[in-house]
Amino acid sequence: MTTIDATPDTGNKKDSPANPRRRVYRPNAKYIPILSTLALLVIMYSGAVANFENFGQPSVVVNLFRDNAVLLVVAVGMTFVIITGGIDLSVGAVISLTTTLTATLLQGGWPPLVVLVLVLLLGSLIGAGQGAVIHYFKVEPFIATLAGLFLARGLALFINQQSIPIRDETWKAISEYRIPLAEGVVTKPIAIVALAAVLIAAAVLAWTRFGRNVYAIGGSADSALLMGLPVARTRIAVYTLSGFCAALGGVLFSINSTSGWALQGNGLELDAIAACVIGGVLLTGGSGYVFGALLGVLVTGLIQTIIIFQGDLNAAWTRIIVGVLLFAFIVLQRLVTRKVK
Amino acid sequence: MTILKNRLFWPAAILVALLIVNAFTSNQFVTVRDGHLFGSLIDILRGSAPLVLVALGMTLVIATGGIDLSVGSVMAISGAVACLLISDLGNQNSVGSVLLIIVIAIAVSLLAGLWNGALVALVGIQPIIATLILMVAGRGIAQLITDGQIINVQSGPYATIATGFFLALPVAFLIAVAAVVLITLLTRRTALGLLLESVGGSPTASRLAGIRSRRITTMVYVVSGGFAGLAGLIYSANIKSADSISAGNLIELDAILAVVIGGTALIGGRFSIAGTVLGAVLIQALGVTVVAVGVPPEATLLFKAVVVVALCLSQSAAFREKVFGRFTSTRTEAIA
């Protein structure tokens, strides 16, 4: 991992002044995927700024966080799961269940704070259940969370198949509240919540014992167990965290749209997984960062924004362009990563 | 006891139970009418043909340690291509033209599979992401082919592949059986199956052993694309139109589920075609039974979830040991 580190005082012949490559800044190998994503993101953004009028305004970047707040929160939880070598397909369905339940309970006159705590608990519980099934019964994560997907969406459809409006004052107040960042630039509270989730999660993953255990399990669960690490607790915790993040995403969704709908968040799990992979989180586990997931979400968000700025694309072309850009991005990322190696 | 321990025992038992429920609730289970077989059993077999085909291709992909999320989109593309070409025909009932169009649609699907295979085997992108690209873009391509419309066709020969009968049996069912037999012979009577499992176990080791890993990997995605295309034709022939939005929507998850129920592990390295067929028919039977017994539509997904959870737990050795093992151990303790 650290062999590529170009430290000046190694005394190695390769690093002699005659070698022109010595002067080139070469980052630590483990940061290469995330740096290449960052570079490509900057290139894509610059290209868009050059091509479209008004793309350079700060509100475009700020709105990126607002429009992708839900995906961001979900991708954060997904990052933990993927780093342990697992996958969580249930997140989109948990969002639909959360929005449906929130809207139904608020309509029934429940106090907002109780509803909030209840749905967050429910999401965590679903995640914990999946984690327990995966760990104790050794069911493959893909299948266990697929069953979770059916279960959560089934419950949501069972509660109500229609879109339910939210008329609660607290929810509406949060939805309509605007936070001024600079002159003419405002954002919604949901963007702040999403950003806070990213920062907290990044700190937890990088600097806590729990975070290191997550990497250890992803590297090799058997070795982690032999080292005496709490594999069961950690593995259940990451799925609980992912369930919690999905429920939080659902709450943000219900705030943003002031409604709940059982078909909400359809396919969001794949968007979240794609965002993580674009951000350099390896599906095989053991490698990746929360900031990678953030960059991945920004890439997909930027693609959407570019398509909106383009303006004259119908639904069919939008899908194709998203696919093409995704393809271009992943291939470029591979080329960059391969070359530096 | 050995039968009970077989991985496929519980799925098979649930399938039999579902069929028995069907036999009692539906007024016709199997009857003969106009020289054809009719009834809910035949409906299940006919209706499961697309899922069996898709799951068959998925089995081969998963055997090599990959996954194919694009099957639903490929289904939409092949249906769109076929319906567009048929609707342009002067005589939609011309058997020769329809056959040619079917060949074209499948060729397009094979190309789609080749694209996936190239991304995975040559560019080296993770399968789940490589096929996600076509999953997203493919439905757009299908919408582009049909110009966002639903194309209706009135072609007798085309409808035959979904609703026709041959030798008293549904044509769609026979197509699925032919595909299953072909793949079984290819993988179990030649070295191909061994090579697939070898690549799934370790692509690098296989390559060092002289197996063309990349060629094998590319091939399974091509085959998966072809079967998805065939499934798309059956789907669109059944509704006599191309619906690029709902054709094959979420079928990738059902197909993966069928493969896993059939005892093929997602990590690759081994596969069971009989298990996959059992899994696919089981999923279809579940859907039919839920409607037949009168579960309200809002609860169908919940019902499915419960069965899937029960099925997955029944297949988990750890679960059986923890739950049933406890009973046996307490009994022995009581005796002691």
UniProtKB/TrEMBL annotation, chain A:
CDD domains: TM_PBP1_transp_AraH_like
Transmembrane stretches, start-end: 31-50, 70-101, 113-136, 142-160, 181-207, 236-255, 316-336
InterPro entries: ABC_transp_permease
Membrane topology: Multi-pass membrane protein
Coiled-coil spans in chain: none
Highest taxon listed in the record's lineage: Bacteria
Molecular function GO labels: transmembrane transporter activity
GO cellular component terms, semicolon-separated: plasma membrane
Residue ranges of the region described as Disordered: 1-22
Keyword Transmembrane helix appears in the UniProt entry: yes
UniProt main location, coarse: membrane
Localization annotation: Cell membrane
Keywords on record: Cell membrane, Membrane, Transmembrane, Transmembrane helix
Pfam family, one: BPD_transp_2
NCBIfam families, alphabetized: PRK11618.1 (NF008630)
Name of the protein described by the UniProt record: Monosaccharide ABC transporter membrane protein (CUT2 family)
Source organism of the structure: Actinoplanes lutulentus
UniProtKB/TrEMBL annotation, chain B:
Predominant cellular place of this UniProt entry's protein: membrane
InterPro entries documented for this protein: ABC_transp_permease (IPR001851)
Keywords: Cell membrane, Membrane, Sugar transport, Transmembrane, Transmembrane helix, Transport
Gene Ontology terms: cellular component: plasma membrane
TM regions (residue ranges): 47-64, 95-112, 119-138, 158-186, 216-235, 247-267, 274-295, 301-319
Pfam families per record: BPD_transp_2
Membrane-protein topology: Multi-pass membrane protein
Presence of keyword Secreted: no
Protein name: Simple sugar transport system permease protein
